[in-house]
């Protein structure tokens, strides 16, 4: 089948498509994740009522779970090739189910909303970790409730590690930081405020405070040397334009689903645009800054939108609408939002090793084509004029297994045009081509389309062509990852299946 090109120096690329072995034999690792109400301290003042995942290692490496200091779930530290069983227990008042965002897992382990379990219920997942080293997420996926549950705290990081990472010259775990970026609106008594107005269903729920790893005004002390930074947008709707306060370029080594390849190399950008549930990894050498200095990660305003601290393509609406929205969004908009502060240590600078990115796997044959038109009307999103139905899958939502499908997404312009972060379950894909739409240059410059992705942002008027090659048979889904759009039905099933002998797919 499609094999990795094991090029030079024993560096092997992840094959593409990735194959999953069923966890037929005993798992290496058994974890339990429980979702339940809790209270945490997010900022000075009162405690905040949240929903939270807590975890336990029932069998295997004790370091497979790293507890979080705030409301986020524990970070899952998995190794490529490991067989994992995860027992999910729902101790919430509503149905829920966990989706492993970006992971290629069997249909039954994907966390489709049809698998949601009620209060008191349990769901057992089994899969083998096939994804390459990278930054992934887990979050709830019950239909219509995802936005509310994520907003109240249910989400966590899933990190996949590989033995070769050291050989590639990446900073080790002791020199990496993960920043899970979320915006929240906290009332005076520190209560989380969710939907407050009709606009929230259209734009998605936006906060006025940026939290990193569940805390306000996050700060990190870093030794003057290269660091691996995992930037993760786990916000319901906000799109960030992340930049260094001293205007140094961002050096991108991963754009979503695993590292960039040697052929693509480190990609530098003046800033990176990060949409909900996208991840990006940076290699940042703090040793090039003055010892004892301070630098901040900020989210800049999208100049061309002129609204809401650069939240989303809602700014593609008419000017009058923009002004109205700006008024409604309250203070703090229109300026750079501080995300996190980094204090550079004063010890002698340590250099890193030279980074060698893994080679790219060979692409699958392109045998099939699909087209999906995105539209937003009457406060709701549509995928080819359709909305989500739990089991429904149309003929033109079927993809053949084990070959490449070129899937074209076209985002209609029009009066309600907005940007949508689109996500496909059960696959990692490449962006083949992005047409120039109505999006101003300052939005496009910060996109990283290289590498493998599972979520991509599409601006109004744009057409984006993806190369997708599913390996897991079954019913998966694709949807807008603005959680209010998703809950509103901008989501559809897709089926990955073997081509019938007649050639119908
Ligand atoms: Cu991250 Cu269908 O979700
Ligand atoms: Cu959307």
Automatic annotation (TrEMBL):
Keywords for the protein's UniProt record, in alphabetical order: Metal-binding, Oxidoreductase
Record-annotated Plastocyanin-like domain positions: 70-164, 396-493
Gene Ontology molecular function: any one: copper ion binding
Matches recorded under InterPro entries: Cu-oxidase-like_N, Cu-oxidase_C, Cu-oxidase_fam, Cu_oxidase_Cu_BS, Cupredoxin
Keyword Oxidoreductase tagged: yes
Top-level taxon of origin: Bacteria
Name of this chain's protein: Multicopper oxidase domain-containing protein
Organism: Denitromonas iodatirespirans
């Amino acid at each position: 089948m499609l094999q990795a090109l094991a090029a030079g120096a024993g560096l092997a690329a992840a094959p593409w498509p990735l194959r999953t072995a069923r966890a037929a034999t005993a798992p290496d690792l058994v974890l339990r994740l429980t979702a339940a109400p809790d209270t945490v301290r997010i900022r000075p003042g009162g405690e905040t009522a949240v929903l939270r995942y807590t975890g336990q290692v029932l069998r295997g490496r004790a370091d497979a779970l790293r507890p979080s200091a705030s409301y986020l779930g524990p970070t899952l530290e998995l190794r490529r090739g490991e067989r994992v069983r995860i027992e999910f227990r729902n101790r919430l008042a509503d149905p829920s189910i966990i989706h492993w965002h970006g992971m290629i897992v069997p249909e039954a382990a994907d966390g489709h909303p049809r698998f949601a379990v009620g209060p008191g219920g349990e769901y057992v997942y089994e899969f083998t970790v096939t994804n390459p080293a990278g930054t992934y997420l887990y979050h709830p996926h019950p239909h219509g409730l995802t936005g509310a549950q994520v907003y109240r705290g249910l989400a966590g990081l899933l990190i996949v590690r590989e033995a070769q990472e050291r050989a590639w010259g990446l900073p080790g775990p002791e020199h990496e930081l993960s920043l899970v970026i979320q915006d929240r609106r906290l009332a005076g008594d520190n209560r989380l405020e969710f939907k407050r107005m009709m606009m929230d269903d259209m734009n998605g729920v936006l906060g006025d405070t940026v939290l990193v790893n569940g805390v306000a005004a996050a700060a990190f002390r870093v030794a003057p040397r290269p660091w691996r930074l995992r930037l993760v947008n786990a916000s319901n709707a906000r799109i960030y334009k992340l930049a260094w306060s001293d205007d140094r370029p961002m050096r991108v080594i991963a754009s979503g689903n695993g590292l960039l390849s040697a052929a693509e190399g480190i990609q530098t950008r003046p800033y990176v645009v990060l949409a909900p549930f996208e991840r990006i990894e940076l290699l940042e050498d703090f040793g090039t800054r003055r010892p004892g200095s301070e630098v901040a990660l900020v989210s800049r305003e999208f100049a061309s939108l002129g609204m809401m601290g650069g939240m989303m393509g809602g700014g593609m609406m008419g000017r009058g609408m923009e002004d109205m929205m700006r008024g409604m969004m309250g203070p703090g908009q229109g300026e750079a939002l501080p995300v996190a502060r980094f204090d550079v240590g004063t010890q002698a600078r340590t250099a890193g090793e030279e980074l060698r990115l893994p080679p790219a796997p060979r692409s699958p044959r392109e045998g099939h084509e699909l087209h999906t038109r995105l539209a937003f009307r009457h406060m709701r999103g549509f995928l080819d004029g359709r909305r989500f139905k739990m089991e429904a899958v149309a003929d033109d939502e079927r993809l053949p297994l084990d070959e490449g499908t070129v899937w074209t997404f076209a985002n209609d312009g029009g009066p309600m045009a907005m940007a949508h972060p689109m996500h496909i379950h059960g696959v990692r894909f490449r962006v083949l081509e992005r047409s120039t739409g109505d999006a101003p240059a300052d939005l496009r410059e910060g996109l990283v389309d290289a590498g493998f992705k599972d979520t991509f942002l599409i601006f109004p008027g744009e057409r984006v062509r993806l190369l997708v090659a599913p390996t897991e048979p079954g019913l998966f889904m694709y949807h807008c990852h603005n959680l209010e759009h998703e809950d509103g039905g901008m989501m559809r099933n897709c089926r990955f299946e073997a081509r019938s002998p007649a050639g119908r797919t």
